[in-house]
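Researcher: Next entry in the queue.
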Amino acid sequence: MRGTLLNTATVACGALLGVAVGRGVPVAYDQIAVSGIGLVVIGLGVKLFLQSKNVLVVAAAIAAGGVIGLALGLSRGLEALGTGLQSAFGGSGRFSEAVITPTLLFCIGPMTLIGCLEDGLERKIDLLAVKSTIDGFSAFFLAATLGAGVLLSAVLLLLIQGALTLGAKSIRPLASDEALLGEVSGAGGILLLAIGLGLLELKKLPVADYLPALILAPLFVAASRKLPARRARCG
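Model: Structure for this entry, 235 residues:
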């Protein structure tokens, strides 16, 4: 867990500094900084999406995941939670966005999964140490523009990466399977693209509703592998 604890600490410190600095930033500078972050997030989303080997799997996962997320009310629930936390702790009108955006940004991608596996199985934190540095700087800029909600992403990062690290033996096959990992990354890339569009104020999408896609993508890959075997037996 050392790598995850380090990552959590750097995000929390970066966010605290960002909140302190952001209070004195003029609105015009705040807006241009948010737009810049949005462009970077879109670039990262495209990079992850291009790791997909089967666009149909990603498309099916995103579509089905969105329907499931909507039925479960994920976005509505997170918005309500964000509103409640904003009332309790204060913050800007973008409080929910300040929680969701960095959480997905910090937790989606191969670096998170592989880093947690190395931490859990081999006690190596080299990859998570690099990730911690990147996430710390990102948290600073996000907190300076989006506000105190970014601090809560450190807690969510601790929970998510902590679970991955503790369950390293169970999820090890996923990291060694390039096809599975590629489709998870592809679906995650789409979520980051949606976040980027929101930061640029081009289109607000219920990103949280699409979170089930990250689970459906590897399941669809596994299902697609079983179909040829069944057809062969039937033939």
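Model: DSSP finds eleven helices and no strands in the chain.
Researcher: Noted, moving on.
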